[in-house]
Write a structure and sequence with these properties.
By secondary structure, the chain is of the alpha+beta class. Helices cover about 25% and strands about 20% of the residues. It has one domain: OmpA-like domain (60s Ribosomal Protein L30, Chain: A). It has a four-stranded mixed β-sheet. Strands 1-2 form a two-stranded antiparallel sheet. The longest helix has 21 residues. The chain is globular, with a radius of gyration of 16 Å.
């Protein structure tokens, strides 16, 4: 219990966008690996899930720096922008840990709720600055594909809802160094489908 309290005390609240609303500022965020479905829903939509008991009791994340418009969730298609967060990867690896597989199981359940059942999902892979551009671009694509494949093959999420891309080391977090472990990530974003296809 002490360990859980200590972890919660060290985590800062997220600055959220409005789901389906206009483009807005957001801090770069990372959900704790053990984040529950309430926290995941809040990270993806900016609003509490109706099935979650109290708005103030979930949705805690680490937040890097002040809000920065350039770090807002990137648009998927030409209409509404998406909300999201990121998960991490080990150095030079695209493999999901068992803990992140469990996290993606919870994410999949959230994406199948009435509020998000139609949402499009965008997975954006990134790397740190160690190594060449071609290697890092390929690795970032593998990371995004790893998340997509797990969501499709292990949780039954429809592949048509998911776009997986990689940016290599070209879009680093500005709040930390270019070789920091937080650069090794996949951003998970969601947006309402609107009139555009998901991918």
């Amino acid at each position: 219990m002490k360990a859980i309290k200590s972890k919660l005390i060290s985590i800062l609240p997220i600055v959220m966008l409005t789901y389906g609303g206009t483009q807005a500022s957001a801090a770069t965020t990372e959900l704790p690996i053990e984040a529950d479905s309430c926290a995941i829903h809040l990270a993806l939509t900016g609003t509490p899930s109706p099935s979650c008991p109290r708005a103030g009791s979930f949705g805690l994340t680490r937040s890097l720096g002040a809000p920065d418009p350039s770090r807002a969730a990137a648009p998927l298609g030409s209409d509404a922008s998406g909300n999201g967060y990121f998960i991490r990867f080990a150095f030079n690896s695209e493999l999901l840990t068992p803990e992140y597989k469990n996290h993606l199981e919870r994410l999949s359940k959230v994406l199948k709720t009435p509020q998000l059942i139609q949402a499009c999902v965008r997975l954006v892979g990134h790397t740190d600055a160690v190594g060449g551009e071609d290697f890092n671009l390929a690795l970032s694509r593998k990371r995004a594909a790893s998340v997509r494949n797990y969501l499709v093959n292990s949780t039954g999420l429809a592949v048509a809802r998911i776009l997986a891309i990689g940016l290599g080391k070209t879009s680093p977090l500005t709040e930390v160094s270019s070789t920091h472990p937080l650069q090794r990530r996949v951003e998970i974003q969601a947006r309402p489908p609107g009139d555009a296809p998901c991918s």
